[in-house]
C-alpha cells in the first residue's frame, strides 16, 4: 500500500510540475478547440500529440481524413482541410478558437502539380489566414523557417523558392488582421525535446538547430499569450541545459512592424 501511495504521489507531483512548466496561458486555454493544419507531418503530428496530452480538443485539417485517422491520437477529429481549398478551410476552422499551422511544400523536382512552395507556403498560408479571419480565430501560430528573409542568397539552391514562399506567406498572415505569432525554427532535427532550453531571437540573423518536439512545444506555449501576439521570432536550442522561461521569452519580443493590407 505504501509503495502504491508513493507511486500515486509521484505521478501527481509530475503532473503538477508539468502544469507549472506549461505556463499560465496554456492552463487557461486547455480544453479549447485547436485546429492544426499539417497535422500528419513530422512536426504537426508532435503538435497534435502534445495538445492532446495537455487537454486540448484537436481538429486535424488534412487532405484525406480517412487515411489520416489511423495516424492520429484517439479523440482527434480529422476533417478535410486542403490549404488550396478555401471552402474546406472555412468549414475546418469553424468553431475553433486557435489554429496552429505547420505546413510545407517539398519543393524542387519532387513538388507535384499544385504542391509547389507558392501553392502551399505562400497561397496556402494566405488561404488559411483569410479563413481564420472569417472564422474569428483568436490566435494563429505559424511555423515558418529561419533564413526566410535571405532566400535569394541561401547556399542550397533548392531551398530558395521554399524560403521565399514562406516569407510571402508570413506577410500574407501579417496583413490578414488575424491575431498571430510566427515562429521561425532553425534546422529541424528528429530528436527528443526538452533537453535544452529554447532560445528566442529576432532579426533573422541567428542560426542553429532545434528538435521538432521543441518547436511543437513553443507553438502551444504561444497560444493565448498576449505577449506573443503580432510577433515573429527565430527559435533554436540553447547550448546549456536549463528550463525554458516561456513567459519571459515571449515578453522580451518586439512587435512586428505593420504590413500594408
CATH level-two architecture: 3-Layer(aba) Sandwich
> What average pLDDT do the residues reach?
89
- Contiguous low-pLDDT stretches (5 residues minimum) are 1-24
Number of helices: 9
CATH C-level category: Alpha Beta
- Give the % helix: 25-40%
**H/E series:** HHEHEHEHEHEHEEEEHEH
By DSSP, the count of extended strands is 10
> CATH topology, what is it called?
Rossmann fold
Principal-axis shape = globular
Which band does the percent of strand residues land in? 15-25%
- Output the CATH homologous superfamily: NAD(P)-binding Rossmann-like Domain
State the distance separating the first and last CA atoms. Answer: 65 Å
Can you walk me through this structure?
α3 (44-53) packs across α8. The chain has helices spanning 2-22, 24-29, 44-53, 65-69, 86-93, 117-135, 160-176, 212-222, 246-251, and strands at 33-37, 57-62, 77-80, 98-101, 139-143, 180-185, 187-189, 198-201, 209-211, 231-237. It has an eight-stranded mixed beta sheet with strand order 3-2-1-4-5-6-10-8, sandwiched between helices. The protein contains nine helices and ten strands. It is of the alpha/beta class and 261 residues long. The protein has one domain (2-251): NAD(P)-binding Rossmann-like Domain (Rossmann fold), CATH 3.40.50.720.
Amino acid at each position: 500500500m505504501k509503495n502504491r501511495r508513493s507511486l500515486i504521489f509521484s505521478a501527481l507531483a509530475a503532473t503538477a510540475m508539468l502544469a507549472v512548466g506549461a505556463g499560465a496561458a496554456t492552463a487557461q486555454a486547455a480544453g479549447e478547440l485547436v485546429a492544426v493544419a499539417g497535422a500528419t507531418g513530422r512536426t504537426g503530428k508532435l503538435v497534435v500529440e502534445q495538445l492532446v496530452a495537455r487537454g486540448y480538443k484537436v481538429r486535424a485539417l488534412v487532405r484525406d481524413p480517412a487515411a489520416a485517422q489511423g495516424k492520429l491520437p484517439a479523440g482527434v477529429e480529422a476533417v478535410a482541410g486542403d490549404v488550396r481549398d478555401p471552402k474546406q478551410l472555412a468549414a475546418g476552422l469553424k468553431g475553433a478558437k486557435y489554429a496552429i499551422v505547420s505546413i510545407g511544400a517539398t519543393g524542387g523536382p519532387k513538388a507535384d502539380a499544385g504542391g509547389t512552395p507558392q501553392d502551399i507556403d505562400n497561397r496556402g498560408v494566405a488561404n488559411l489566414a483569410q479563413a481564420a479571419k472569417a472564422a474569428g480565430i483568436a490566435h494563429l501560430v505559424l511555423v515558418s523557417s529561419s533564413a526566410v528573409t535571405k532566400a535569394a542568397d541561401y547556399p542550397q539552391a533548392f531551398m530558395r523558392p521554399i524560403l521565399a514562399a514562406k516569407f510571402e506567406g508570413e506577410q500574407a498572415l501579417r496583413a490578414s488582421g488575424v491575431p498571430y505569432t510566427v515562429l521561425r525554427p532553425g534546422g529541424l532535427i528528429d530528436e527528443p525535446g526538452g533537453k535544452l532550453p529554447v532560445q528566442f531571437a529576432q532579426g533573422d540573423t541567428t542560426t542553429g538547430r532545434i528538435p521538432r518536439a521543441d518547436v511543437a512545444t513553443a507553438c502551444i506555449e504561444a497560444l493565448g499569450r498576449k505577449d506573443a501576439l503580432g510577433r515573429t521570432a527565430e527559435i533554436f536550442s540553447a547550448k546549456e541545459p536549463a528550463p525554458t522561461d516561456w513567459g519571459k521569452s515571449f515578453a522580451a519580443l518586439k512587435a512586428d512592424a505593420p504590413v500594408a493590407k
